[in-house]
């Protein structure tokens, strides 16, 4: 079966998904305006919409769209977890409407092929202000801890010894260290030299922060959990016409040239190739992905003997480009609607020039 999915389809799929969810958000806000309140279902739906746009926009390197939707997602995560009182309904509606207007205008720029806005600090600042206002009404125990302030209070830049406040040893034993003390409090501890700009970038990657602050005066422990969103894998880069794909090295047994007299047909009419006394099925990647240009004759291209589990077969491509270690990223969930995985694509990687290239799923291609 032929699959007409290739790199050119990704932008079209992004636009389809983005316009669909933004249309849904527009309709939802009309219902909210009529009722003058957000239901828990409304909050959950808006959170999911922002999460979807954030993920797909980040994958496409549309940073401004990703940043604004990420901040809106954060806002609705707090509302979802703590409930919404009537005091802030109007403010929440107004901010959400401005987010919708901005995202819709940016998506239209994507459709038109024009340059996106270079950030929107005013809108992000407005969302942050609403988060602070909303959290001010929450009990202290339910507010988000300011992890950056807490951790940066511990990991401060070293100062000259003469500028360090002296500690009264009678009042503070040497072995006692309060890791969460503020900069103005006297401290007797080893100072860690750290680039705080880089540390802030690290905190942006953190999926979970656990802080154990015991009451018995012992040291505070901080646990950072970084989600395994990405993995780095060695791949073979191959060309199909004008398209470039990656094949994991772990699936490749051998690369070789072949001649037309090595081709055979099995009883079902499937194409096979003879190699070292064995016959292997041939998967012509041009046909699999609907690529019209490029090499068609078997003796003009290259064959890759691959295996996945107990299956073995040969993938036919134009040429080998080289081997690379690439950052493998998962495909956005919305692409599953277009049966991308069934086409034989397992993931993608973003090149330094912003181009997105797909990673082939050898097991799917050989099945």
List the helices and strands and how they pair.
Elements: H1 9-35, H2 40-59, H3 63-82, H4 89-112, H5 121-136, H6 147-154, H7 196-205, E1 208-212, E2 221-225, E3 231-240, E4 243-248, E5 252-256, E6 263-265, E7 271-275, E8 278-284, H8 285-289, E9 302-308, E10 311-317, E11 319-328, E12 345-350, E13 356-360, H9 362-366
The percent of residues in helical segments reads: 25-40%
CATH architecture assignment name of the largest domain = Beta Barrel
* Relevant CATH superfamily of the largest domain: CheA-289, Domain 4
Q: Estimate the mean pLDDT confidence.
A: 78
Write structural notes for this entry.
This protein starts with 8 loop residues before the first helix and ends with a helix. A hairpin with a 2-residue loop joins strand 3 (231-240) and strand 4. The chain is built from 9 helices and 13 strands. The strands form 3 sheets. The protein has a 6-stranded mixed beta sheet with strand order 5-9-10-8-7-6. Strands 11-3-4-13-12 form a 5-stranded mixed beta sheet. It is an alpha+beta fold.
What's the short version?
Helix content is 37%, strand content 22%. With 367 residues, it is of the alpha+beta class. The protein folds into 3 domains: 134 residues, Four Helix Bundle (Hemerythrin (Met), subunit A) (Up-down Bundle), CATH 1.20.120; 49 residues, no CATH class; 136 residues, Beta Barrel (OB fold (Dihydrolipoamide Acetyltransferase, E2P)), CATH 2.40.50.180.
């Amino acid at each position: 079966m032929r699959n007409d999915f290739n790199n050119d389809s990704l932008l079209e799929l992004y636009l389809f998904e983005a316009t669909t969810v933004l249309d849904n958000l527009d309709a939802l806000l009309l219902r909210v305006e009529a009722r003058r309140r957000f239901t828990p279902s409304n909050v959950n739906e808006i959170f999911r919409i922002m999460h979807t746009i954030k993920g797909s926009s980040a994958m496409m390197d549309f940073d401004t769209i990703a940043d604004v939707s990420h901040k809106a997602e954060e806002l609705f995560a707090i509302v979802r977890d703590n409930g919404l009182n009537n005091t802030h309904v109007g403010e929440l509606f107004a901010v959400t409407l401005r987010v919708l207007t901005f995202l819709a205008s940016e998506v239209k720029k994507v459709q038109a092929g024009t340059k996106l806005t270079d950030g929107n600090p005013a809108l992000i600042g407005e969302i942050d202000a609403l988060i602070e206002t909303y959290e001010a009404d929450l009990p202290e125990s339910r507010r988000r801890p300011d992890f950056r302030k807490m951790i940066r209070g511990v990991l401060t830049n070293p100062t000259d010894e003469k500028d360090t406040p002296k500690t009264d040893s009678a009042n503070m034993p040497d072995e006692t260290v309060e890791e969460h003390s503020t900069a103005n409090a006297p401290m007797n501890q080893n100072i860690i030299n750290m680039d705080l700009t880089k540390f802030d970038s690290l905190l942006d990657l953190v999926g979970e922060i656990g802080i154990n602050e015991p009451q018995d005066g012992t040291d505070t422990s901080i646990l950072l959990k970084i989600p395994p969103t990405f993995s780095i894998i060695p791949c073979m880069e191959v060309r199909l016409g004008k398209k470039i794909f990656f094949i994991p090295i772990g699936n490749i047994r051998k690369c070789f040239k072949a001649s037309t007299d090595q081709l055979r047909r099995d009883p079902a009419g499937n194409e096979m190739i003879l190699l070292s006394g064995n016959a292997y099925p041939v998967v012509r990647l041009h046909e699999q992905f609907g690529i019209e240009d490029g090499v068609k004759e078997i003796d003009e291209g290259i064959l890759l003997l691959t295996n996945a589990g107990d299956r073995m077969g040969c993938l036919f491509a134009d040429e080998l480009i080289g081997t690379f270690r690439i950052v493998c990223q998962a495909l956005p969930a919305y692409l599953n609607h277009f049966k991308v995985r069934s086409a034989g694509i397992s993931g993608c990687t973003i090149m330094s020039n912003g181009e997105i290239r797909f990673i082939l799923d050898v097991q799917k291609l050989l099945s």
